[in-house]
TrEMBL record:
GO terms for molecular function: transmembrane transporter activity. NCBIfam families: efflux_EmrB (TIGR00711). SUPFAM superfamilies: MFS general substrate transporter. It comes from Marinobacter segnicrescens. This is Drug resistance transporter, EmrB/QacA subfamily. It is a multi-pass membrane protein. Keywords: Cell membrane, Membrane, Transmembrane, Transmembrane helix, Transport. The keyword Electron transport does not apply. PANTHER family: MAJOR FACILITATOR SUPERFAMILY MULTIDRUG TRANSPORTER MFSC (PTHR42718).
Length: 522
C-alpha cells in the first residue's frame, strides 16, 4: 500500500516533519562526507598505485562532474519512480560504489567508484530539498532549509578530519567504507518515512539527448585539460579531444534551445542579474572545492603532515563556515546581495593570497587562519548568491533558476579542481626546469648543500662509488621539492586572481539590482 505525504502526516502527526528531515539529512550527510573525505587520502592513493597528481585529481573532479550532471536527472527520477524508490535506489548504488572503491585493485576502478558516488549524490541532494519543502509549512521552510543546510555543511567540515584518522589508523581504503553506516540508517528511515510515488501521477519525458551531449562535453573537456601537459597541448590527440568537447558544447546549447522540454533552460541566462549570479556561483565552486583539494596536498607533501593532522587542520575552517551560515542568511535578507557577496569574495581573495605566500616554514596556525578566512568568505557569499540570483527571476522561473545555479557551482568545482591540478603540475615542472638550469658547480648554495650531504654520506654507509649517484639523486629531490613549493604558491595566487575577477559579475549583479529597483519608481 503506497503512502503519500498526507498519509504520513496523518499517521505520525506534526512529528513527521522532523522524521522526514532526519531521513533526508542522513542520506545528504553520507553524500557530503564522500565529497571531501577522500581528499586527505589522495597522497596515499598516489603512492599505493604509483600515479601522478594529475591522474589522482580525477578522484575529486570525477565525483564533482558526475554530481553536477546528475543533478539534472533528479526531477525526472522523482516523477518516474517516486521519492522512496528513487531515494533508496540511489543509496544502494552509492553503497555498492563505495564498496567498489574500498576493494578496487587498480586506480581506474577507484575513479569509477568516485564517479558513481558523485552521480548518486547529484540525484539525492535535490530530492532531499524537495522533501523539506513538502513537510514544512511555508512559514517554517526557512527553518527546515537551515537545518538541512547544517547537514550539508557539516559533511565537508568533518570529512577531512574523519578521513585523515581512517587513513593513518587503518588504510586509505577505509574512507570508502565510512559513509556506509549512515547510508544504512537512511535506508531504514526511508522505508518508513519517505513517501511513495503518487498513483496516477504523470511521468515527464527525460531529455536523454541533451544529457548525453552534456556528459560527452564534460568528460572530453576534463580529459583534455588533465592530459594536455603530459601529451603536449599541440598534439593531434589533445587538439582532437578539445575540438570534440567544443562540438559537444555547441550541440548541447543548440539542442537545449530547440527542444520543447530542455534539460536545462538556457534562456534564463539571458537575464543579466541571474547570469552574473551563476558566474559567481561557478567561481565560488572552484574556490570551495579547489582549496579543499589543494590544502591537504600542500600540508602533507610540503609540510610533512600526517593525514590526520591535515584533516584536523581543515576542521576549524569548516566549523567556522557552518557557524557563520545563519549570520550570512540574516545579512542576505537585510542588505543588498552584491554587498554581502563582495565581502565574501574579498575574504576569499585574501585567504588565497595568504596561502600563496606560504612555504615549508609556515606555522600551522597561519594555515588554519588563512583557511578559516576563506571558509568565512564562502559562508558569507553563498546565501547571498542564491538570493541575489533568484530575485532577478520571475517567480515562475525560480525552480529552474535554483537548479541552474546549483549546476553552475558544481561545474565550477569540477573544472576548478581540474585546472588547479593541471596548473600545479605545469608550474612545478616550469620551476624545476628553471632551478635546474641555475644549479651549477659555481653556485655557492648548491655546493654547500652537496658538501654537507657528502660529509654525512659515510655515516650512512655509502661507498665512494655510490656517492656520486646518491648526490645527484639527493639534488634532484631537493630541486623537485623546491619546485613543488613554488607550484603550490602559483596555484593559490592564480586562485586569488580568479576571485578578483569575480568582482566583475558582482558589479553586474549590483548594477542590475540598482536598475531593477529604480524602474518601478520611474
Amino acid at each position: 500500500m503506497s503512502q503519500t505525504t498526507e498519509d504520513l502526516f496523518h499517521r505520525y502527526g506534526p512529528a513527521y516533519k522532523w522524521l522526514g528531515t532526519v531521513t533526508v539529512m542522513l542520506g545528504t550527510l553520507s553524500m557530503t562526507l564522500a565529497t571531501t573525505i577522500v581528499n586527505v587520502a589522495i597522497p596515499d592513493i598516489m603512492g599505493y598505485f604509483g600515479i601522478a597528481q594529475t591522474e589522482a585529481q580525477w578522484l575529486s573532479t570525477g565525483f564533482l562532474a558526475a554530481m553536477a550532471a546528475f543533478m539534472l536527472v533528479s526531477a525526472w527520477a522523482l516523477q518516474a519512480f517516486g521519492m522512496k524508490a528513487a531515494y533508496i535506489g540511489c543509496l544502494v548504488v552509492f553503497m555498492l560504489a563505495s564498496v567498489l572503491g574500498g576493494v578496487a585493485p587498480n586506480e581506474d576502478l577507484v575513479i569509477l567508484s568516485r564517479v558513481l558516488q558523485g552521480a548518486m549524490a547529484g540525484v539525492i541532494q535535490p530530492l532531499a530539498m524537495t522533501i523539506i519543502f513538502q513537510v514544512f509549512p511555508e512559514k517554517q521552510r526557512g527553518l527546515g532549509m537551515g537545518i538541512y543546510g547544517l547537514g550539508v555543511i557539516l559533511g565537508p567540515a568533518l570529512g577531512p578530519a574523519v578521513g585523515g584518522v581512517l587513513v593513518d589508523w587503518i588504510s586509505w581504503r577505509a574512507v570508502f567504507f565510512m559513509p556506509l553506516p549512515t547510508c544504512l540508517m537512511a535506508i531504514g528511515f526511508a522505508l518508513y518515512f519517505a513517501p511513495d510515488k503518487t498513483e496516477g501521477s504523470p511521468s515527464s519525458r527525460f531529455d536523454w539527448i541533451g544529457f548525453g551531449f552534456l556528459c560527452l562535453f564534460l568528460v572530453s573537456l576534463l580529459w583534455t585539460l588533465s592530459n594536455g601537459q603530459r601529451e603536449d597541448w599541440r598534439s593531434l590527440l589533445i587538439v582532437g579531444t578539445g575540438l570534440f568537447a567544443l562540438l559537444m558544447a555547441v550541440a548541447f546549447i543548440a539542442w537545449e534551445l530547440l527542444t520543447p522540454k530542455p534539460l536545462l533552460n538556457l534562456r534564463i541566462f539571458a537575464i543579466p542579474g541571474f547570469a552574473a549570479g551563476c558566474a559567481i556561483s561557478f567561481c565560488y565552486g572552484a574556490g570551495l572545492f579547489g582549496s579543499t583539494y589543494l590544502i591537504p596536498l600542500f600540508v602533507q607533501q610540503i609540510q610533512g603532515f600526517t593525514a590526520t593532522a591535515a584533516g584536523l587542520l581543515l576542521m576549524p575552517a569548516g566549523l567556522a563556515m557552518a557557524l557563520i551560515f545563519p549570520v550570512a542568511g540574516y545579512m542576505a535578507d537585510r542588505y543588498p546581495a552584491p554587498a554581502v557577496i563582495t565581502l565574501g569574495t574579498v575574504m576569499l581573495a585574501g585567504s588565497s593570497y595568504m596561502m600563496g605566500l606560504m612555504d615549508v616554514y609556515t606555522l600551522p596556525w597561519l594555515i588554519v587562519l588563512s583557511a578559516t578566512i576563506g571558509r568565512l568568505g564562502l559562508g558569507f557569499g553563498m546565501p547571498a548568491i542564491g538570493t541575489g540570483s533568484l530575485r532577478a527571476l520571475d517567480y515562475s522561473l525560480v525552480s529552474q533558476g535554483s537548479g541552474a545555479a546549483n549546476f553552475s557551482r558544481q561545474i565550477g568545482g569540477a573544472i576548478g579542481v581540474n585546472l588547479l591540478s593541471v596548473t600545479l603540475d605545469w608550474r612545478t615542472m616550469q620551476h624545476a626546469r628553471v632551478i635546474t638550469d641555475t644549479q651549477t658547480a659555481a653556485n655557492a648554495l648548491t655546493g654547500e648543500l652537496l658538501a654537507r650531504f657528502q660529509s654525512m654520506a659515510p655515516a650512512a654507509g655509502l661507498t665512494p662509488d655510490q656517492l656520486g649517484p646518491a648526490s645527484l639523486g639527493f639534488l634532484r629531490q631537493a630541486i623537485y621539492f623546491q619546485a613543488s613549493v613554488r607550484g603550490f604558491q602559483d596555484s593559490f595566487l592564480i586562485l586569488t586572481g580568479v576571485f578578483v575577477l569575480t568582482l566583475i559579475p558582482v558589479w553586474v549583479m549590483w548594477r542590475y539590482t540598482r536598475v531593477s529597483k529604480a524602474e518601478p519608481q520611474a
